[in-house]
């Protein structure tokens, strides 16, 4: 009996592989994965005008009402397919492309979809809008025409022959073929009882959640979508339904009536907040999620929020909280007094000397930076000096040959310069800094050493500086640890506060940058440098996630530049190239590929920034 069952399973698996392979319309041997090209596609999308804060992620599969042949119906294939879409927040591309038998064509299709999405706007009519965007793209970049035609011709060879279709389907197919070859030539599509075969060169309407919003969930920070790192199957279609269940009564379950998990899953997160270990696996198998709020009265009980440590072990608050605005990109306005920032003094700030392992390096940095106190710099284009300014002389000679000669100095002269600058350093102390860099160090250890050596260097140079750390727990609790103010001296008390730093919570960058801008803006120095050390992108438990956090941080950086500050970000996040150019500009950040080198690189970067400004 066991042998018969095993034989049946073996025959079934062989038959499944055979019929699926015969019915498959893709070319797995030429498959191209989105993850291999995600970064280059994001850069291409933004370089051609796409929104900088828009996320690029994999598209989920959607239902297709196609006329399938016998093999497809037997194998159960071609019911769903991932289709490219673009809305105001996300650009979704198929996780894998195997549309063409040539891998180069599949890669070119990814590039085309990214270019098309960069020129796309709100979609009102699928066919007309895609034709208009295609026409605009080809008009703006004529060099793309041969590539587009090559994709179109390769795709048309794979589409169903209109002669083999029913009259209404054939008319629709001919119209779509003409729209692909001549964008803008088809204004109306013929009606058909069946959908046309998918067009991988066009964007499709984005799958939207139900329009009803839950303000309670948004305020408490619960999100109906999983984080990017945990969302393996892409976003799910969701519908909101009314739960008509009533308490009490007799429940009779007939197991033969439960055909599949996807028919009904009762997710009652209001009366029972326990975790189901199988929920993620079950949700991954579902095509559509139905969510409802169960209409039951909450039971009387005590709900404790253990988000913050007890007051006797927590850092010491300094004064009342500071109300700060926050940028809402959806409404394009600042929300005044939206964030509460609390200055905190580290409780573990007992005076401590510099660790012995850093003393040799600190002495070397002090000697190097002490030379900046009486730094002699070359002044160009001087009327007199000790050496000839070759660049000024060459400019003078070229202009004289062209008949336009402006008076200018042609000499170089060395002069003593006064370093009239102030620097404020913000260190990200979020919980992600508790991660290990190597077998011996964590990210927070690297940040402590970096702050210590940075302080030793600037103390040697005599520059005015301040040191702060920040983390957050929703918008009502943004914590700014005061390590050294502009008025305080850099001494053992500051060193002790730095060595007592511990990982905090989340990363609400915008509020920290705005408060640092106010503190640095009050300094009388002419040049003001705002440095930010971080290991990731802005995030928090509430709405401060994804594009919202990126846009708010970018707006805070723009506000700092308007006040004459020089914001610069130093990061160890290898994915920083996807979002930091949009937030700080192409030359407003640097990536430390080996985090353990941050303590050595930070003083060097400061010297380069202050010498070139």
Q: Mind explaining what this structure looks like?
A:
It is a single chain. The chain is of the alpha/beta class. It folds into 3 domains: 18-181, no CATH class; 316-371 and 419-612, Rossmann fold (3-Layer(aba) Sandwich); 377-416, no CATH class. It has helices at 2-23, 38-47, 70-75, 103-118, 126-140, 145-156, 167-181, 215-220, 279-285, 356-370, 390-401, 443-461, 492-499, 509-521, 547-562, 580-584, 598-612, and strands at 32-33, 55-58, 61-63, 80-82, 85-86, 90-93, 96-97, 237-240, 288-291, 316-317, 322-328, 333-345, 376-382, 387-388, 411-416, 421-428, 464-472, 478-484, 527-534, 566-571, 589-591. Mean pLDDT is 78; it is low at 209-233, 258-274 and 295-306. It holds the Pfam family VWA. Residues 216-243 are annotated as: Disordered. This is VWA domain-containing protein.
């Amino acid at each position: 009996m066991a042998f018969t069952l095993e034989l049946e399973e073996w025959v079934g698996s062989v038959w499944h592989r055979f019929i699926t392979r015969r019915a498959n319309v893709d070319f797995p041997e030429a498959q191209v994965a989105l993850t291999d090209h995600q970064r280059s596609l994001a850069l291409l999308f933004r370089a051609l005008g796409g929104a900088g804060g828009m996320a690029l992620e994999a598209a989920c599969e959607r239902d297709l009402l196609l006329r399938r042949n016998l093999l497809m119906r037997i194998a159960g294939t071609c019911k769903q397919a991932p289709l490219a879409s673009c809305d105001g927040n996300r650009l979704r591309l198929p996780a894998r492309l195997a549309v063409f038998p040539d891998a180069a064509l599949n890669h070119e299709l990814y590039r085309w979809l990214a270019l098309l999405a960069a020129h796309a706007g709100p979609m009102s009519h699928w066919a007309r809008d895609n034709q208009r965007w295609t026409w605009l793209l080809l008009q703006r970049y004529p060099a793309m025409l041969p590539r587009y035609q090559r994709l179109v011709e390769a795709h048309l060879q794979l589409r169903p022959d209109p002669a083999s279709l029913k009259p209404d389907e054939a008319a629709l197919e001919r119209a779509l073929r003409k729209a692909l070859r001549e964008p803008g030539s088809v204004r109306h599509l013929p009606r058909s009882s069946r959908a046309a075969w998918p067009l991988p060169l066009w964007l499709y309407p984005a799958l939207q959640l139900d329009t009803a919003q839950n303000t309670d969930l948004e305020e408490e920070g619960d999100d109906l979508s999983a984080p990017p790192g945990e969302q393996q199957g892409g976003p799910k279609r969701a519908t909101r339904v009314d739960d008509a269940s009533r308490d009490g009564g007799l429940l009779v379950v007939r197991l033969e009536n439960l055909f599949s998990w996807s028919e009904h899953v009762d997710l009652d997160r209001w009366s029972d907040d326990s975790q189901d270990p199988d929920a993620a696996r079950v949700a991954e198998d579902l095509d559509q999620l139905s969510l409802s709020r169960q209409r039951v009265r909450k039971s009387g009980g005590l709900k404790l929020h253990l988000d913050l440590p007890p007051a006797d072990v927590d850092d010491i608050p300094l004064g009342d909280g500071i109300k700060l605005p926050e940028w809402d990109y959806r409404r394009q306005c600042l929300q005044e007094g939206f964030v509460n920032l609390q200055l905190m003094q580290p409780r573990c700030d007992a005076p401590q000397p510099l660790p012995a392992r850093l003393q040799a390096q600190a002495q070397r940095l002090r000697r190097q930076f002490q030379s900046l106190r009486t730094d002699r710099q070359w002044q160009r284009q001087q009327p007199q000096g000790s050496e000839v300014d070759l660049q000024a002389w060459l400019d003078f000679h070229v202009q004289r040959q062209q008949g336009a000669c402006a008076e200018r100095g042609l000499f170089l002269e060395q002069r003593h310069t006064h370093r009239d600058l102030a620097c404020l350093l913000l260190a990200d102390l979020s919980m992600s800094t508790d991660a290990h860099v190597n077998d011996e160090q964590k990210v927070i250890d690297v940040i402590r050493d970096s702050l210590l050596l940075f302080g030793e260097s600037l103390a040697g140079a005599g520059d005015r500086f301040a040191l702060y750390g920040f983390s957050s727990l929703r918008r009502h609790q943004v914590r700014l640890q005061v390590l050294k103010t502009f008025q305080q001296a850099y001494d053992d008390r500051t060193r002790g506060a730095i060595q007592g730093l511990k990982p905090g919570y989340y990363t609400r960058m915008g509020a920290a940058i705005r408060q640092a801008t106010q503190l640095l803006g009050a300094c009388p120095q002419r040049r003001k440098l705002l440095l930010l050390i971080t290991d990731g992108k802005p995030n928090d438990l509430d709405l401060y996630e994804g594009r919202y956090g990126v846009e708010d941080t970018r707006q805070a950086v723009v506000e700092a530049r308007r006040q004459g500050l020089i914001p610069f970000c130093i990061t160890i996040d290898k994915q920083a190239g996807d979002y930091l150019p949009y937030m700080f500009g192409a030359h407003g950040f640097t990536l430390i590929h080996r985090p353990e080198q941050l303590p050595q690189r930070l003083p060097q970067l400061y010297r380069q920034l202050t010498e070139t400004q």
